[in-house]
Specification:
The protein has 20 helices and no strands. It is mostly helical. The termini are far apart.
């Protein structure tokens, strides 16, 4: 790994194919470590807070917190030129350890009441800020170690392993938690997540990277220069809108489903169902992105996610019907989410210039975070008000109405870089037939 900074485009600093393959394997290992941490902690925090009698508004704040945590990338940007990309990733993971351990101890000691839920949210947020400071380096490392034509293949390999893990691990978690878990039941899971994160930190140090150009200007000026390009502004507006709709709906599914009678263990098992849908279409989405760009996956997934909105008006009650309904919805959502993530990742790579690599990817995360913050706060509040104004079915009407707004995100996707040059969906179907 070079020690002196220079232009990332310098051919002397190209990464050899053999080194690139080794680094890709290590990046996949880091991603799998993150998936373990997510399954054992991030995805369970709403259930943990519900066990402490948290309100729907507080659950909405969990989604807000997840996006607010991405603001920690400001710290990562400031440190990356000193520590290197792999170094900032390592230290971000390491610094998330104390808050994660404190969250596990809060659960171990059987915390009780709304005050404990607020403390849990604060610890979750503090852990996430440090974690996301390290994540500043993720996409730059991916860009360094993949060619644009092979991005879809790499993401397919990585996400296939992540989702295969998600097929098995949540089944064990759901069996362990049961239908009505207590707060202290989450303690061992949170502790395992913390140590998984710790292991991923050391694996990240072995990833090859291209050196960064020396920062000749201040951070704010570099961010403004990155945002000055039309393709970056178009992507930022698109991802902001899409994330706002997602944060205002998807995190609240747990409240709607458990309120209508879905046991907690069944809800945890929806994660492998969603992962199964994700895996089923992953190779197809990856080939579509590599051959035709981001236009097709984004168009198909955003419009179909909007078309799924009326399903909330037909949510049944009682087992097994609510479980069958949830299983079908999560399976389809997983298949669409896999395509959307593939298309969005390609659109982001296309929007970020290598001259402002770290700043461009961070701006993409900031735009996503801003949308998530607004969507999470507004979604949690409106979800709670809908129940007060329209009774038990009010939240279902709310989820249906807001999910239709994915159409607006699709309209914004038509302004992304390369959209007009990429294959339209109707032509893609003709080519596939």
């Amino acid at each position: 790994m070079p020690d002196t900074p220079s232009n990332t485009a310098n051919p002397r600093h190209r990464i050899s194919p053999a080194t690139r393959r080794r680094s890709q394997s290590r990046l996949i290992g880091v991603a799998v470590s993150g998936s373990i941490s997510s399954a054992l902690l991030t995805s369970l925090v709403p259930l943990f807070l519900l066990s402490l009698n948290a309100s729907p508004f507080l659950i909405g704040l969990v989604a807000t917190s997840e996006y607010l945590q991405r603001m920690g990338r400001v710290v990562g940007l400031q440190l990356m030129h000193r520590t290197g990309k792999a170094g900032v990733f390592f230290w971000g993971r390491l610094c998330s350890f104390p808050a994660g351990l404190a969250l596990a101890l809060l659960a171990f000691y059987g915390a009780n009441g709304v005050w404990a839920a607020w403390i849990g949210l604060a610890l979750f947020s503090a852990r996430g800020l440090a974690y996301q400071a390290g994540n500043t380096a993720w996409w730059p490392l991916v860009q360094d170690n993949t060619a644009s034509s092979g991005l879809g293949a790499f993401l397919t390999r990585m996400r296939l392993q992540q989702r295969l893990l998600e097929l098995a691990l949540p089944i064990l978690i759901g069996w362990y938690l049961g239908s009505q878990p207590m707060a202290d039941d989450f303690g061992p899971l949170f502790a395992l997540a913390v140590f998984s994160t710790f292991g991923g930190a050391f694996l990240a140090r072995q990833v090859a990277e291209r050196p960064l150009s020396p920062p000749g200007e201040g951070l704010i000026r570099r961010l403004r220069q990155a945002l000055a390009t039309p393709q970056m502004r178009a992507y930022a507006l698109f991802v902001m809108a899409r994330t706002a709709v997602l944060a205002a709906t998807f995190p609240l599914w747990v409240v709607a489903l458990t309120d209508w009678g879905l046991p907690v263990s069944y809800f945890v098992w929806m994660t492998p169902v969603q992962a199964l849908g994700y895996v089923a279409g992953l190779h197809g989405w990856g080939r579509m992105v590599d051959r035709h760009g981001s236009r097709g996956p984004l168009t198909i997934t955003l419009l179909l996610q909007a078309a799924m909105a009326p399903a909330w008006l037909f949510l049944p009650t009682g087992l097994p019907w609510i479980a069958l309904w949830a299983g079908g919805v999560y399976l389809l959502w997983g298949a669409l989410d896999g395509g959307h993530q593939m298309g969005q990742s390609r659109a982001m790579i296309d929007a970020v210039s290598k001259e402002h690599q770290a700043e461009g990817f961070s701006l993409a995360m900031y735009a996503s975070a801003l949308g998530g913050i607004v969507g999470g706060i507004a979604g949690g509040a409106c979800f709670q008000w809908s129940a007060a104004l329209a009774g038990p079915r009010g939240p279902l009407f709310y989820l249906c109405a807001v999910q239709f707004a994915f159409v607006a995100a699709w309209l914004l996707s038509t302004r992304l870089a390369g959209y007009r040059e990429q294959t339209p969906v109707r032509r893609f179907w003709r080519l596939s037939s």
